[in-house]
Amino acid sequence: MDTTFAQESTHLAVTCRGEWTHASVVALVESIVEMAASSGHKRILVDWLEVSAPHSEFDRFQGGALVAELIRPPRKLAVVYRSELINKFAENAAVNRGADMLVCGTRDEALNWLLADDA
Fold first, then answer.
1. What is the distance between the alpha carbons of residues 21 and 54, in angstroms, rounded to a whole number?
2. CA nearest to 77, candidates 19, 29, 119, 25
3. Structural domains of the chain sorted by starting position, each given as residue range(s) with its CATH number in brackets
4. Which residues of 63-73 are buried (b: 16+ CB within 10 A; e: fewer)?
5. What's the rounded Cα separation, in Å, for the pair 67 and 91?
6. What's the gap between Cα 67 and its chain centre?
7. Are the CB atoms for 71 and 44 separated by under 8 Å?
8. What are the contacts of 80-88 at 24+ separation with CB within 8 A?
9. 90, CA 20 to 30 Å: which among 37, 78, 100, 102?
10. Residue ranges of E strands in 19-83
């Protein structure tokens, strides 16, 4: 998976392109944790629009569980994904394990949620 990072004034922006595999999600989450720690960002916006559908629902579950393990509050993670591929399974797996995560279909919705408590 190709991943780029941009340090915005209010959040860390991550753009991903490629295939959703367990290995690519592990590498992505680990790199997000590292970049957020070094930059001091607590808000993370992931553009996942050009990432394939997962191979299985278990991939969604594993991704959400990994987010919960490594991206803990006070960090917040918003993921923008194609609406037709969203079923909230990864989000629920993460949130049920203590993460602060949203998966949604638009950048505006993601940013509104991500930055809501900064107003």
1. 7
2. 29
3. 2-118 (3.30.750.24)
4. bbbbbbeebee
5. 9
6. 8
7. yes
8. 80/45, 80/46, 80/47, 80/48, 80/49, 80/104, 80/105, 80/106, 80/107, 80/109, 80/110, 81/48, 81/49, 81/51, 81/105, 82/49, 85/53, 87/60
9. 37
10. 43-51, 76-80
Q: Is the dihedral of CA 95, 59, 50, 10 positive or negative?
A: positive
Torsion of CA 51, 52, 56, 60, to 10 degrees: 20
User: pLDDT tens, position by position, for the chain (119 residues)?
Assistant: 999 999 999 999 999 999 999 999 999 999 999 999 999 999 999 999 999 999 999 999 999 999 999 999 999 999 999 999 999 999 999 999 999 999 999 999 999 999 998 64
**Which pLDDT score, from 0 to 100, does residue 55 have?**
94
